[in-house]
Structures are given as C-alpha cells and as structure tokens.
TrEMBL record:
Its EC number is 2.1.1.193. It comes from Paenibacillus filicis. PANTHER family: 16S RRNA (URACIL(1498)-N(3))-METHYLTRANSFERASE, RIBOSOMAL RNA SMALL SUBUNIT METHYLTRANSFERASE E. Specifically methylates the N3 position of the uracil ring of uridine 1498 (m3U1498) in 16S rRNA. Acts on the fully assembled 30S ribosomal subunit. The keyword rRNA processing applies. It is an enzyme of class 2 (transferase). It catalyses: uridine(1498) in 16S rRNA + S-adenosyl-L-methionine = N(3)-methyluridine(1498) in 16S rRNA + S-adenosyl-L-homocysteine + H(+). Residues 15-62 form the Ribosomal RNA small subunit methyltransferase E PUA-like domain. This is Ribosomal RNA small subunit methyltransferase E. The keyword Transferase applies. SUPFAM superfamilies: alpha/beta knot, PUA domain-like. Residues 70-256 form the Ribosomal RNA small subunit methyltransferase E methyltransferase domain.
Length: 265
C-alpha cells in the first residue's frame, strides 16, 4: 500500500482512505495480519496491523525493507491514443515493467475521438491503474500519467528528454539497441544516469537519464509526422522486422531499453 510520508512515524504507520477501506472491506484484514507499505519515495516497511477502527488502520513497523526497485533510467512512454481500453493495458503492463511516465497523445491517424469532457475521469482511472500496478510490482514510485497532448505538446516534451525515439516500422529506422547503447554510454561518461550493471541507486542529486519512446497509432505515423519528428530531434527506431500492434510496440520498446540498461534481471 502507498501511504503519505507523514503517515510513517518511528515505529507505526496509519493507513486511511481507500487503502484502509480496501484492507478492511476487501481483504478482510484482521489485527495481527502483515502488509507491506511504502511512501512511494523513501520508505518501505513490513507492518503488523494492530487496530482497524473508524475506517483507519494502525499498524506497527516490524521491519524496514531495503528499497529502490526503480530502474536507473526514466523511460517515458508516449502512446498515441489506441482504440478501446488498450491504453489501460499499456499503463498497467508498462508500470509493471518499469516505465516512469505515460504521455497519451493524438496524431494524424489516431482513430479514437477524444472527448475532452471525459478527460478528467479517464485520467483518474489511468492514474489509478498505474497506482495499482505499481503496488503489485512493489515499485517505489507511481508513474505519472500526463494529460493528452497534441503533436506540438509532444515535440516540446521531446526537447526536454535526453533522447527521444519514435518507433517507425519503415525501412530507414535505426536499430533501437545501438541508440540505447550510445545514450547510456554518453550519460555514463557525463556522470548522468547509469551504466548497465552499475550502482542502481544513483548518487543524490544525480539526474536520471530521461528517454522518451514514442509509439504511433494503429494506422502508424504519416510521413509528414516522421519528418516533423526528425526535425524536432527525434530519431526513428525499429523494433524489428515484424509489425507489432501499437500496445505491443510500447511494451517491446520499453523492455528493450530496460534490458540494455541492465534492468531486466
Ligand atoms: N502503419 C502500419 C500498418 O498499418 O501497416 C502499422 C502501424 S503499427 C500497428 C502501430 C505502431 O507501432 C507504429 O506506428 C509504430 O510506432 C509501432 N511499431 C509497430 N511495429 C514496429 C516495428 N517493427 N518497428 C518500429 N515500430 C513499430
């Protein structure tokens, strides 16, 4: 369970709100049960429930757990809005694998008609999916889910990343592995981010490498978009010879990056 840092005291934690409700009503927790709590940043502990009263759970810290299950690089997945509930799949699986941030966007061939009036509700749901997947994967951070961007907003974000790659199934796309290796190497020599297999905690104050992976919609990117992305400094990358569904492409790209960064075991 994720709890606010102030809910941790030296030897106790308080769990309230939805999480307490989930523990009491759904999990039917009792005094003496053990759960793992995290403040999503610095503290994680195995706690023993002592009381469940008035919608609040009080638990005693039994053991502080060593942490940091976060990847040494931040992978931001920009996903062109897919059909149906595939965005949920991308967020859920991407969170388990280790994405740091999700950026839904609309592009020329995006099929989904985005209803701006429902955006708040959708974002809440996506953020909730990220939270639950982060809990299940025992992550220390809940990935952010951004509001839907247009192309211009996406390119602005690309400029803020250390490297931005757009997945392009056309022949002139570069091999993803080569780009990942060169970005990791560059950051290692600059003392930023981490080399594969190196200390994963990162020195305090050290910025993580931010890698933006942009995935197109069911119908792919138009040539115009590919040209605009290149102009904005993004590089076209290939995920192999086979054409993947948009949601598969996001997962494969993310996994390849984290594999090269030494994060997949
Ligand atoms: N335009 C294609 C078509 O209709 O034949 C397919 C688009 S594909 C289903 C959806 C998105 O997944 C693409 O825009 C691209 O970002 C990504 N993608 C799928 N396979 C890929 C591959 N082999 N290399 C790079 N990107 C890929």
């Amino acid at each position: 369970y994720f709890i606010q840092p102030e809910q941790f005291s030296a030897d106790h934690v308080k769990i309230s709100g939805d999480d307490a409700h989930h523990l009491i009503r759904v999990m039917r927790a009792k005094a003496g049960d053990r759960v793992i709590v995290s403040d999503g940043a610095l503290q994680e502990a195995l706690v023993v429930i002592r009381t469940l009263e008035g919608g609040e759970v009080d638990a005693e810290i039994e053991e502080r757990l060593p942490m940091d299950r976060e990847p040494s690089v931040d992978v931001w997945i920009a996903q062109s809005l897919p059909k149906g509930d595939k965005m949920e799949l991308v967020i859920q699986k991407g969170t388990e694998i280790g994405a740091a941030r999700f950026i839904p966007f609309s592009s020329e061939r995006t099929v989904v008609q985005w209803d701006a009036k429902k955006e708040g509700k959708r974002l809440d749901r996506w953020q909730k999916i990220a939270k639950e997947a982060a809990e299940q994967a025992h992550r220390n951070r809940i990935p952010a889910v951004d509001a839907v961007r247009n192309w211009k907003g996406l390119m602005e974000l690309a400029a803020a990343a250390d490297a931005a790659w757009f997945c392009y199934e056309k022949q002139d796309a570069q091999e993803l592995r080569a780009l990942i290796r060169s970005a990791l190497l560059k950051s290692a020599t600059a003392g930023q981010g981490l080399e594969a297999g190196a200390d994963k905690s990162g020195a305090p104050g050290q910025e993580r490498l931010k890698l933006l992976l942009i995935v197109g919609p069911e119908g792919g990117f138009t040539e115009r978009e590919a040209a605009l992305a290149e102009e904005a400094g993004c590089r076209a990358v290939s995920l192999g010879k086979r054409i993947l569904r948009t949601e598969t492409a996001a997962m494969v790209g993310l996994t390849c990056i984290l594999y090269e960064a030494g994060e997949m075991g």
